[in-house]
Automatic annotation (TrEMBL):
This is Uncharacterized protein. It comes from Paramecium octaurelia.
Length: 402
């Protein structure tokens, strides 16, 4: 799933202990944009805990309660390691926790869960002198998130007792002990299942559906790849290895990240009945063809419309430089070093990633607002860049006259 890049906010540049956070988290790719730090998390590697909770709640994904306990325990262990660094998070909800598995992906059928990496994002500015108070809040937030998740399985008597015990403590050590003891007493370590697990489903049916679902996702990306290459060739007529082309394609991937979520959400919601056999009248292949017919083309048109607007903006920003250049040429008889289109596109990409980390841009109005913000910012940056170039030229001319 090459395209799906989730952009998440980490913290501001002046955030206390930022260096310690970056050292602790060991993020792969960090972007500094306007003194804010962002991280790019590929969807084919990472899943947000909030998304994982929602997909298990809807029963699109099947995860054993034993696996939920094990994931929850790893998150708490990671939080414990954070506290060792004398750092707190401040906003430890499920939206700010990301998980990467080891050579596996969560799926419509249960898999063996081996966690390779956990990341916290969106650190909140807190007075670190109040470390103990901040620590209590992080523990409560983590506990409430975990209780909310395992409550999906509260029909199991052992889970009811576990929830009651978790709700009665604010001690991180005790919470970890409760989960560890539960795991030792009730979970088969090899299969990661609960003893007498009540997770019942037609595994054969889901296995048969799995290939169709994987092909659906693969087909979506292949169509998008072909569409954007054709559109870029027609719009800009430049080689695919040209730096400007590469930057434009990266911008497209960011846009696709937002728009594709609608398609995948629609598909997941509508396929649940088929996977759980509550919908006996609809076949999965029929649903896939219906979604392709209705939604693929619509989102291609939306993506194209957004890219067209971005292409126009980049053209306008490039022309802004040329106009400034002509005025300087006429007045000072000198040439300025102007930014290349690929440099403007790269700056646009970073700002777009930053704005998308703050907005849910499912509506065109929201996207247009983001474009306006980026336009104003880049106009200011370009003007400052050209004015700096001009000052250097003037100082050189003055020095030459001495």
């Amino acid at each position: 799933m090459e395209y799906y890049q989730t952009i998440q906010y980490i913290a501001q540049e002046n955030f206390p202990y930022l260096d310690k956070i970056l050292e602790f988290e060991k993020y792969k790719k960090v972007i500094n944009c306007n003194n804010d730090y962002l991280i790019s998390l590929p969807q084919d590697e990472y899943i947000c805990l909030e998304e994982l909770i929602e997909l298990t709640k809807s029963q699109y994904l099947r995860i054993y309660i034993g696996q939920v306990i094990m994931i929850a325990n790893r998150i708490l262990q990671y939080l414990k390691q954070l506290f060792v660094q004398k750092i707190t998070h401040g906003n430890l909800c499920s939206n700010n926790i990301y998980i990467r598995l080891d050579d596996q992906k969560f799926n419509i059928i249960p898999i063996r869960v081996e966690i390779a990496q956990i990341h916290f994002v969106n650190y909140k500015f807190l007075n670190q002198k109040q470390f103990q108070l901040n620590r209590v809040k992080d523990i409560q937030d983590a506990r409430n998130t975990i209780v909310s998740w395992i409550s999906q399985y509260k029909k199991i008597s052992q889970i009811k007792d576990l929830i009651d015990n978790l709700n009665q403590t604010n001690s991180l050590g005790l919470i970890i002990d409760l989960l560890e003891n539960f795991k030792k007493k009730y979970i088969y370590i090899e299969t990661q299942e609960l003893i007498n697990d009540e997770l019942i489903f037609d595994e054969d049916k889901r296995i048969n559906c799995l290939n169709s679902i994987l092909e659906f996702y693969q087909d979506f990306y292949q169509q998008q790849e072909l569409h954007i290459e054709t559109w870029l060739d027609n719009r800009f007529n430049i080689a695919q290895d040209h730096p400007f082309y590469i930057q434009l394609k990266e911008i497209y991937k960011l846009i696709l990240t937002q728009n594709q979520r609608n398609i995948f959400t629609i598909f997941q919601i509508q396929s649940i009945g088929i996977l759980n056999e509550s919908d006996q009248d609809t076949k999965l292949d029929d649903l896939i063809e219906q979604i392709k017919e209705i939604h693929f083309q619509h989102h291609q048109q939306l993506n194209e419309q957004q890219m067209q607007q971005i292409g126009n903006q980049i053209d306008q920003l490039a022309q802004r430089q040329i106009s400034f250049q002509l005025k300087i040429q006429e007045k000072w008889n000198t040439q300025l070093k102007i930014l290349q289109n690929e440099q403007i596109a790269c700056a646009y990409k970073i700002l777009l990633a930053y704005e998308l980390s703050k907005f849910n841009c499912n509506e065109m109005k929201v996207f247009q607002k983001i474009q306006q913000i980026i336009q104003i910012c880049l106009e200011k940056e370009i003007d400052q860049y050209l004015e700096f170039q001009l000052k250097k030229k003037i100082l050189k001319l003055m020095n030459d006259l001495k």
